[in-house]
Amino acid sequence: MSQPSLTLGAFGNGCVGQGFLELLNANGGTAAHVKHVCVKERGRERSIGNATLTYEALDILGDDQVRAIVELTNDPVLALDVIKHALNTGRNAITASKRVVAENLAELIALQRTTGQSLLYEASCAASIPVLRALETHFSGEEVLRIDGILNGTTNYILTKAQEEKISPAEALRQAQEAGFAEADPSSDLSGTDSRYKLVILIAHAFGTIVRPSSILCHGIEGLNAGDLAFGAPNGWSLRLIASAYRSTDGLVAHVLPTFVRSNDAFAFVRNEYNAVRIEGANSGTHLLQGKGAGKLPTGLAVLSDVQQLIRGGGYGYAKVNEQAPVLSGGERRLEVYARIPATHQELLARFDAVRPIDDSKEFVRVTGTIVLDELRALLGEGRDGFQVIALPHLSAKC
Ligand code: HSE
Protein backbone atom coordinates (compact mmCIF):
# COMPACT_ATOMS: atom_id res chain seq x y z
CA MET A 1 0.00 0.00 0.00
CA SER A 2 1.41 3.38 -0.89
CA GLN A 3 2.16 5.87 1.87
CA PRO A 4 0.01 9.02 2.10
CA SER A 5 2.01 11.99 0.81
CA LEU A 6 3.29 14.45 3.44
CA THR A 7 1.93 17.94 2.74
CA LEU A 8 4.57 20.66 3.02
CA GLY A 9 4.52 24.44 2.95
CA ALA A 10 7.72 26.11 1.80
CA PHE A 11 9.00 29.57 2.69
CA GLY A 12 11.51 31.04 0.27
CA ASN A 13 12.31 30.22 -3.34
CA GLY A 14 15.91 31.37 -3.72
CA CYS A 15 18.88 29.21 -4.61
CA VAL A 16 18.27 26.51 -1.96
CA GLY A 17 14.47 26.64 -2.30
CA GLN A 18 14.72 26.05 -6.03
CA GLY A 19 17.25 23.24 -5.59
CA PHE A 20 15.02 21.52 -3.06
CA LEU A 21 11.89 21.75 -5.26
CA GLU A 22 13.81 20.55 -8.30
CA LEU A 23 15.04 17.46 -6.46
CA LEU A 24 11.70 16.75 -4.75
CA ASN A 25 9.82 16.96 -8.04
CA ALA A 26 12.40 14.81 -9.82
CA ASN A 27 12.44 12.22 -7.05
CA GLY A 28 9.29 10.13 -7.38
CA GLY A 29 10.37 8.09 -4.34
CA THR A 30 9.72 10.82 -1.77
CA ALA A 31 6.21 10.62 -0.33
CA ALA A 32 5.87 14.37 0.07
CA HIS A 33 4.61 17.31 -1.94
CA VAL A 34 4.79 21.07 -1.53
CA LYS A 35 1.32 22.60 -1.46
CA HIS A 36 2.27 26.28 -1.14
CA VAL A 37 5.43 28.29 -1.69
CA CYS A 38 5.49 31.61 0.17
CA VAL A 39 7.81 34.33 -1.18
CA LYS A 40 8.35 38.04 -0.55
CA GLU A 41 9.32 39.26 -3.97
CA ARG A 42 6.47 39.65 -6.43
CA GLY A 43 6.56 39.63 -10.19
CA ARG A 44 9.39 37.12 -10.71
CA GLU A 45 8.83 34.08 -12.90
CA ARG A 46 9.12 30.94 -10.77
CA SER A 47 9.19 27.25 -11.44
CA ILE A 48 7.31 25.70 -8.52
CA GLY A 49 5.69 22.62 -10.06
CA ASN A 50 2.13 22.01 -8.82
CA ALA A 51 2.48 24.23 -5.73
CA THR A 52 0.57 27.49 -5.42
CA LEU A 53 2.47 30.72 -4.98
CA THR A 54 1.54 32.97 -2.07
CA TYR A 55 2.85 36.14 -0.42
CA GLU A 56 1.00 35.45 2.85
CA ALA A 57 2.62 33.27 5.52
CA LEU A 58 -0.83 32.54 6.92
CA ASP A 59 -1.82 30.73 3.72
CA ILE A 60 0.64 28.07 4.92
CA LEU A 61 0.42 28.44 8.67
CA GLY A 62 -3.41 28.50 8.58
CA ASP A 63 -3.75 25.44 6.34
CA ASP A 64 -4.49 22.35 8.43
CA GLN A 65 -3.37 20.06 5.62
CA VAL A 66 0.20 21.37 5.91
CA ARG A 67 1.95 18.98 8.31
CA ALA A 68 5.47 20.39 8.04
CA ILE A 69 7.05 23.62 6.91
CA VAL A 70 10.31 24.01 5.02
CA GLU A 71 11.96 27.33 5.88
CA LEU A 72 14.48 28.47 3.24
CA THR A 73 14.32 32.26 3.40
CA ASN A 74 17.05 34.83 3.90
CA ASP A 75 15.12 36.54 6.65
CA PRO A 76 16.15 35.39 10.15
CA VAL A 77 13.27 37.16 11.91
CA LEU A 78 10.61 35.66 9.66
CA ALA A 79 12.39 32.29 9.80
CA LEU A 80 12.31 32.09 13.59
CA ASP A 81 8.73 33.21 13.61
CA VAL A 82 7.46 30.59 11.19
CA ILE A 83 9.52 27.80 12.79
CA LYS A 84 8.12 28.59 16.24
CA HIS A 85 4.61 28.96 14.86
CA ALA A 86 4.88 25.59 13.13
CA LEU A 87 6.13 23.76 16.24
CA ASN A 88 3.53 25.46 18.43
CA THR A 89 0.70 24.39 16.11
CA GLY A 90 1.66 20.72 16.00
CA ARG A 91 3.75 20.73 12.84
CA ASN A 92 7.32 19.72 12.18
CA ALA A 93 9.78 22.14 10.62
CA ILE A 94 12.92 22.05 8.49
CA THR A 95 15.30 24.96 8.05
CA ALA A 96 18.57 25.67 6.26
CA SER A 97 19.32 28.76 8.35
CA LYS A 98 22.44 28.23 10.44
CA ARG A 99 22.10 31.67 11.94
CA VAL A 100 18.57 31.07 13.21
CA VAL A 101 19.46 27.66 14.63
CA ALA A 102 22.77 28.76 16.20
CA GLU A 103 21.41 31.95 17.76
CA ASN A 104 18.29 30.30 19.20
CA LEU A 105 19.37 26.74 19.85
CA ALA A 106 18.47 26.50 23.55
CA GLU A 107 14.98 27.90 22.89
CA LEU A 108 14.44 25.70 19.84
CA ILE A 109 15.48 22.53 21.69
CA ALA A 110 13.17 23.43 24.60
CA LEU A 111 10.31 24.09 22.19
CA GLN A 112 10.79 20.73 20.50
CA ARG A 113 10.81 19.02 23.89
CA THR A 114 7.61 20.76 25.08
CA THR A 115 5.66 20.46 21.82
CA GLY A 116 6.89 16.98 20.86
CA GLN A 117 7.46 18.30 17.32
CA SER A 118 10.75 18.18 15.43
CA LEU A 119 12.98 20.76 13.82
CA LEU A 120 15.54 19.35 11.39
CA TYR A 121 18.39 21.41 9.91
CA GLU A 122 20.90 19.18 8.14
CA ALA A 123 21.26 21.76 5.33
CA SER A 124 22.38 24.42 7.81
CA CYS A 125 25.67 22.72 8.49
CA ALA A 126 28.09 21.82 5.67
CA ALA A 127 25.22 21.47 3.16
CA SER A 128 25.36 18.03 1.58
CA ILE A 129 27.48 16.34 4.27
CA PRO A 130 25.11 14.31 6.50
CA VAL A 131 27.10 15.26 9.59
CA LEU A 132 24.23 16.02 11.96
CA ARG A 133 22.62 12.69 11.15
CA ALA A 134 25.97 10.97 11.76
CA LEU A 135 26.44 12.72 15.11
CA GLU A 136 22.85 11.97 16.13
CA THR A 137 22.97 8.31 15.21
CA HIS A 138 26.42 6.74 14.97
CA PHE A 139 28.17 9.04 17.43
CA SER A 140 25.38 9.45 20.00
CA GLY A 141 26.93 6.65 22.06
CA GLU A 142 30.51 7.78 21.53
CA GLU A 143 32.54 10.34 23.45
CA VAL A 144 33.62 12.86 20.86
CA LEU A 145 37.05 14.25 21.73
CA ARG A 146 37.50 16.65 18.89
CA ILE A 147 35.77 17.97 15.81
CA ASP A 148 37.40 20.08 13.09
CA GLY A 149 35.71 21.31 9.97
CA ILE A 150 36.06 23.23 6.78
CA LEU A 151 32.51 24.50 7.04
CA ASN A 152 32.28 27.31 4.50
CA GLY A 153 32.23 26.65 0.77
CA THR A 154 32.77 30.26 -0.28
CA THR A 155 35.99 30.80 1.65
CA ASN A 156 37.30 27.37 0.70
CA TYR A 157 36.63 28.24 -2.94
CA ILE A 158 38.47 31.55 -2.57
CA LEU A 159 41.46 30.00 -0.79
CA THR A 160 41.74 27.15 -3.29
CA LYS A 161 41.52 29.48 -6.29
CA ALA A 162 44.05 31.90 -4.76
CA GLN A 163 46.53 29.15 -4.01
CA GLU A 164 46.18 26.93 -7.06
CA GLU A 165 45.27 29.36 -9.83
CA LYS A 166 46.54 32.68 -8.40
CA ILE A 167 43.05 34.14 -8.85
CA SER A 168 42.53 37.23 -6.69
CA PRO A 169 40.25 36.82 -3.65
CA ALA A 170 37.89 39.47 -5.09
CA GLU A 171 37.53 37.62 -8.40
CA ALA A 172 37.16 34.25 -6.64
CA LEU A 173 34.43 35.74 -4.43
CA ARG A 174 32.64 37.01 -7.54
CA GLN A 175 32.73 33.48 -8.99
CA ALA A 176 31.47 32.01 -5.71
CA GLN A 177 28.60 34.51 -5.70
CA GLU A 178 27.73 33.67 -9.29
CA ALA A 179 27.69 29.96 -8.45
CA GLY A 180 25.31 30.61 -5.53
CA PHE A 181 27.76 29.59 -2.79
CA ALA A 182 28.06 32.93 -0.98
CA GLU A 183 25.59 34.45 1.46
CA ALA A 184 23.49 37.45 0.38
CA ASP A 185 25.94 39.43 2.52
CA PRO A 186 29.26 37.65 1.87
CA SER A 187 30.93 39.37 4.82
CA SER A 188 29.48 36.61 6.99
CA ASP A 189 31.38 34.04 4.89
CA LEU A 190 34.64 36.03 4.86
CA SER A 191 34.60 37.02 8.53
CA GLY A 192 34.15 33.42 9.68
CA THR A 193 30.77 34.07 11.33
CA ASP A 194 29.03 31.65 8.95
CA SER A 195 31.51 28.92 9.98
CA ARG A 196 31.00 29.90 13.61
CA TYR A 197 27.21 29.40 13.39
CA LYS A 198 27.86 25.94 11.96
CA LEU A 199 30.39 25.17 14.70
CA VAL A 200 27.82 26.09 17.36
CA ILE A 201 25.45 23.54 15.82
CA LEU A 202 28.14 20.84 15.60
CA ILE A 203 29.14 21.44 19.22
CA ALA A 204 25.56 20.85 20.42
CA HIS A 205 25.27 17.55 18.57
CA ALA A 206 28.85 16.33 19.20
CA PHE A 207 29.34 17.38 22.83
CA GLY A 208 25.87 18.41 24.07
CA THR A 209 27.09 21.92 24.89
CA ILE A 210 24.93 24.89 23.93
CA VAL A 211 27.05 27.99 23.34
CA ARG A 212 26.32 31.48 22.10
CA PRO A 213 28.00 32.16 18.74
CA SER A 214 29.64 35.33 20.10
CA SER A 215 31.41 33.31 22.81
CA ILE A 216 33.57 31.53 20.23
CA LEU A 217 36.80 33.18 19.06
CA CYS A 218 36.50 33.88 15.35
CA HIS A 219 38.93 35.36 12.84
CA GLY A 220 38.21 35.28 9.11
CA ILE A 221 40.03 35.64 5.84
CA GLU A 222 38.94 39.11 4.71
CA GLY A 223 42.21 40.73 5.78
CA LEU A 224 44.58 38.17 4.20
CA ASN A 225 47.17 39.46 1.75
CA ALA A 226 49.34 37.72 -0.83
CA GLY A 227 52.29 37.54 1.59
CA ASP A 228 50.19 35.67 4.17
CA LEU A 229 49.02 33.19 1.56
CA ALA A 230 52.57 32.69 0.32
CA PHE A 231 54.05 32.05 3.78
CA GLY A 232 53.04 28.37 3.77
CA ALA A 233 54.23 27.63 0.23
CA PRO A 234 57.89 26.66 0.96
CA ASN A 235 56.62 24.03 3.41
CA GLY A 236 53.89 22.83 1.06
CA TRP A 237 51.18 24.02 3.43
CA SER A 238 47.70 24.94 2.23
CA LEU A 239 45.51 27.56 3.86
CA ARG A 240 42.03 26.62 5.06
CA LEU A 241 39.45 28.32 7.29
CA ILE A 242 39.01 25.76 10.06
CA ALA A 243 36.40 25.60 12.81
CA SER A 244 37.50 23.47 15.76
CA ALA A 245 36.11 22.29 19.07
CA TYR A 246 37.95 19.95 21.42
CA ARG A 247 37.92 18.74 24.98
CA SER A 248 40.64 19.99 27.28
CA THR A 249 41.24 19.54 30.99
CA ASP A 250 39.14 22.58 31.83
CA GLY A 251 36.26 22.11 29.39
CA LEU A 252 35.66 22.68 25.74
CA VAL A 253 37.90 24.85 23.55
CA ALA A 254 36.43 26.27 20.34
CA HIS A 255 37.63 28.65 17.64
CA VAL A 256 37.37 29.53 13.96
CA LEU A 257 40.72 30.50 12.45
CA PRO A 258 42.54 30.55 9.13
CA THR A 259 44.91 27.63 9.50
CA PHE A 260 47.83 26.24 7.55
CA VAL A 261 47.53 22.50 6.94
CA ARG A 262 50.34 20.19 5.93
CA SER A 263 50.36 18.73 2.44
CA ASN A 264 49.57 15.24 3.78
CA ASP A 265 46.62 16.44 5.89
CA ALA A 266 43.29 15.29 4.46
CA PHE A 267 42.03 18.89 4.68
CA ALA A 268 44.61 19.92 2.06
CA PHE A 269 42.67 17.82 -0.46
CA VAL A 270 39.34 19.49 0.31
CA ARG A 271 39.10 21.96 -2.56
CA ASN A 272 36.77 24.64 -3.94
CA GLU A 273 33.26 24.57 -2.45
CA TYR A 274 33.81 21.21 -0.80
CA ASN A 275 33.62 21.00 3.00
CA ALA A 276 34.91 18.35 5.38
CA VAL A 277 34.36 17.40 8.98
CA ARG A 278 36.85 15.34 10.97
CA ILE A 279 35.45 13.69 14.09
CA GLU A 280 37.71 12.06 16.66
CA GLY A 281 35.97 9.56 18.93
CA ALA A 282 37.40 8.22 22.19
CA ASN A 283 36.73 4.62 21.18
CA SER A 284 36.42 4.75 17.45
CA GLY A 285 39.32 6.93 16.32
CA THR A 286 39.25 9.49 13.54
CA HIS A 287 36.59 9.79 10.86
CA LEU A 288 36.41 12.09 7.87
CA LEU A 289 33.23 13.16 6.12
CA GLN A 290 33.38 15.33 3.06
CA GLY A 291 31.08 16.66 0.38
CA LYS A 292 29.85 19.84 -1.26
CA GLY A 293 29.35 22.49 1.40
CA ALA A 294 27.40 25.02 -0.66
CA GLY A 295 25.31 25.34 -3.79
CA LYS A 296 21.75 24.91 -4.99
CA LEU A 297 21.53 21.14 -5.43
CA PRO A 298 23.87 19.92 -2.63
CA THR A 299 22.00 22.09 -0.12
CA GLY A 300 18.63 21.21 -1.67
CA LEU A 301 19.54 17.54 -1.23
CA ALA A 302 20.13 18.03 2.50
CA VAL A 303 16.67 19.61 2.79
CA LEU A 304 15.14 16.71 0.87
CA SER A 305 16.96 14.30 3.16
CA ASP A 306 15.32 16.01 6.16
CA VAL A 307 11.90 15.61 4.50
CA GLN A 308 12.62 11.90 4.11
CA GLN A 309 13.67 11.74 7.76
CA LEU A 310 10.35 13.33 8.79
CA ILE A 311 8.50 10.73 6.73
CA ARG A 312 10.43 7.95 8.50
CA GLY A 313 9.55 9.66 11.77
CA GLY A 314 11.71 11.18 14.43
CA GLY A 315 13.73 14.30 14.96
CA TYR A 316 17.01 14.86 16.78
CA GLY A 317 17.42 13.18 20.15
CA TYR A 318 19.95 15.69 21.58
CA ALA A 319 21.15 12.76 23.70
CA LYS A 320 24.20 14.66 24.97
CA VAL A 321 22.41 17.91 25.85
CA ASN A 322 22.34 17.49 29.63
CA GLU A 323 24.22 18.59 32.78
CA GLN A 324 27.20 16.36 31.95
CA ALA A 325 28.01 18.33 28.81
CA PRO A 326 31.40 20.09 29.02
CA VAL A 327 31.35 23.86 29.41
CA LEU A 328 33.03 26.20 26.99
CA SER A 329 36.33 27.23 28.49
CA GLY A 330 39.93 26.77 27.49
CA GLY A 331 40.78 30.45 27.14
CA GLU A 332 44.16 29.69 28.73
CA ARG A 333 45.03 27.37 25.89
CA ARG A 334 48.06 28.44 23.87
CA LEU A 335 48.11 28.35 20.06
CA GLU A 336 51.06 28.49 17.71
CA VAL A 337 50.46 31.09 15.03
CA TYR A 338 51.84 33.14 12.17
CA ALA A 339 51.17 36.84 12.87
CA ARG A 340 51.34 39.94 10.68
CA ILE A 341 51.50 43.01 12.88
CA PRO A 342 51.21 46.62 11.65
CA ALA A 343 54.62 48.31 11.96
CA THR A 344 52.91 51.13 13.84
CA HIS A 345 51.83 48.67 16.56
CA GLN A 346 54.95 46.70 17.33
CA GLU A 347 54.02 46.79 21.01
CA LEU A 348 51.62 43.94 20.16
CA LEU A 349 54.63 41.64 19.88
CA ALA A 350 54.84 41.60 23.67
CA ARG A 351 51.58 39.66 23.77
CA PHE A 352 53.18 36.70 22.01
CA ASP A 353 55.68 34.17 23.37
CA ALA A 354 58.34 32.11 21.65
CA VAL A 355 58.51 34.83 18.99
CA ARG A 356 60.55 34.09 15.86
CA PRO A 357 60.91 36.90 13.32
CA ILE A 358 60.07 36.17 9.69
CA ASP A 359 60.67 39.62 8.17
CA ASP A 360 59.65 43.25 8.43
CA SER A 361 58.82 46.11 6.10
CA LYS A 362 57.67 49.72 6.40
CA GLU A 363 54.12 48.40 6.84
CA PHE A 364 54.34 45.13 8.77
CA VAL A 365 56.34 42.94 11.10
CA ARG A 366 55.80 39.23 10.52
CA VAL A 367 56.59 36.60 13.13
CA THR A 368 55.62 33.19 14.33
CA GLY A 369 54.94 32.72 18.01
CA THR A 370 52.50 31.40 20.56
CA ILE A 371 49.58 33.23 22.09
CA VAL A 372 46.99 32.40 24.74
CA LEU A 373 43.47 32.20 23.24
CA ASP A 374 42.00 34.80 25.60
CA GLU A 375 44.83 37.17 24.71
CA LEU A 376 44.21 36.59 21.00
CA ARG A 377 40.50 37.22 21.49
CA ALA A 378 41.30 40.52 23.25
CA LEU A 379 43.72 41.52 20.52
CA LEU A 380 41.22 40.77 17.75
CA GLY A 381 38.58 42.71 19.67
CA GLU A 382 40.81 45.78 19.58
CA GLY A 383 40.16 45.82 15.81
CA ARG A 384 43.58 46.90 14.56
CA ASP A 385 43.65 47.24 10.79
CA GLY A 386 46.32 45.11 9.20
CA PHE A 387 46.60 42.60 12.05
CA GLN A 388 46.26 39.03 10.82
CA VAL A 389 46.90 35.66 12.43
CA ILE A 390 46.95 32.20 10.93
CA ALA A 391 47.15 29.07 13.06
CA LEU A 392 50.14 26.88 12.24
CA PRO A 393 49.63 23.20 11.44
CA HIS A 394 48.41 21.49 14.57
CA LEU A 395 47.04 18.26 13.22
CA SER A 396 48.96 15.41 11.78
CA ALA A 397 47.32 13.76 8.79
CA LYS A 398 45.09 11.13 10.30
CA CYS A 399 42.91 10.17 7.39
N1 HSE B 1 27.62 30.70 2.21
C1 HSE B 1 27.65 29.36 2.69
C2 HSE B 1 28.98 28.75 2.32
C3 HSE B 1 26.51 28.59 2.11
O1 HSE B 1 29.66 29.30 1.45
O2 HSE B 1 29.35 27.73 2.88
C4 HSE B 1 26.31 27.22 2.71
O3 HSE B 1 26.02 27.31 4.07
Describe the protein.
- With 399 residues, the protein is α/β, with parallel strands linked by helices.
- It has two domains: 6-121, NAD(P)-binding Rossmann-like Domain (Rossmann fold), CATH 3.40.50; 136-296 and 326-396, Dihydrodipicolinate Reductase, domain 2 (2-Layer Sandwich).
- It is built from 13 helices and 16 strands.
- The chain has helices at residues 15-26, 57-61, 76-88, 98-103, 105-115, 131-136, 153-165, 169-178, 187-190, 193-207, 226-231, 296-312, 373-381, and strands spanning 6-11, 32-38, 52-54, 68-71, 92-95, 119-120, 144-150, 217-218, 238-248, 251-261, 274-281, 285-292, 334-342, 353-360, 364-372, 388-391.
- Strand 4, helix 3 (76-88) and strand 5 form a beta-alpha-beta unit.
- The radius of gyration is 22 Å and the shape is globular.
- Residues 395-399 have low confidence and may be disordered.
- L-homoserine is lined by residues 127, 152-154, 181-183, 189, 194, 293-294.
Percent range of helical residues: 25-40%
Radius of gyration: 22 Å
The helix count comes to 13
Total domain count: 2
Please state the structural category: alpha/beta
% residues in beta strands:
25-35%
- Quick one: overall form? globular
Ligand inventory reads: L-homoserine
Would you state the CATH class of the largest domain? Alpha Beta
Oligomer: single chain
By CATH, the superfamily of the largest domain comes out as Dihydrodipicolinate Reductase, domain 2
* CATH architecture annotation of the largest domain: 2-Layer Sandwich
Terminal CA distance reads 45 Å
Strand order of the largest sheet: 3-2-1-4-5-6
**Total E-strand runs:** 16
Largest sheet: 6 strands, parallel
CATH topology of the largest domain: Dihydrodipicolinate Reductase, domain 2
